[in-house]
Design brief:
Mean pLDDT: 90
Radius of gyration: 21 Å
Helix content: 55-70%
Oligomer: single chain
Low-confidence stretches: none
Strand order of the largest sheet: 1-2
Distance between the termini: 23 Å
Number of helices: 3
Shape: rod-shaped
């Protein structure tokens, strides 16, 4: 694989890593937004959780599926994957001779 192909492959991996961090943070933010009005929120799919019938029987109340809640470990792993991918992009860029970089997006703009 050429140096340019390696660089492009590393960019693809960086974009996937960024998308995963974005997905996890978007989910956490959506959950946080629901919890702003926690008095009417129901948690679902969590072992041994019983809600008062006034909340549990009202389908119009917001609900948080706890299976969707990103764990701190999942977020840490996704962020570390992003940082490692970004370092790989920077290293791959350095391996491309300056004369062959024409038309490529430099990593500083990512």
């Amino acid at each position: 694989m050429s140096q340019i192909e390696e660089y492009q492959k590393s960019i693809d991996e960086l974009n996937k890593a960024r998308a995963e961090v974005d997905r996890l943070t978007r989910t956490a933010i959506e959950i946080a937004d629901k919890l702003r009005n926690w008095r009417v929120v129901m948690l679902s799919n969590l072992a041994d959780v019983n809600f008062h019938f006034s909340i549990a029987l009202d389908a119009s109340k917001p609900s948080i599926d706890c299976r969707d809640w990103p764990s701190p470990i999942a977020l840490r792993d996704a962020m570390n994957h992003f940082y490692a991918s970004r370092a790989t992009v920077m290293q791959a860029w350095k391996l491309i001779p300056e004369g062959k970089r024409t038309g490529l997006t430099p990593p500083e703009s990512m």
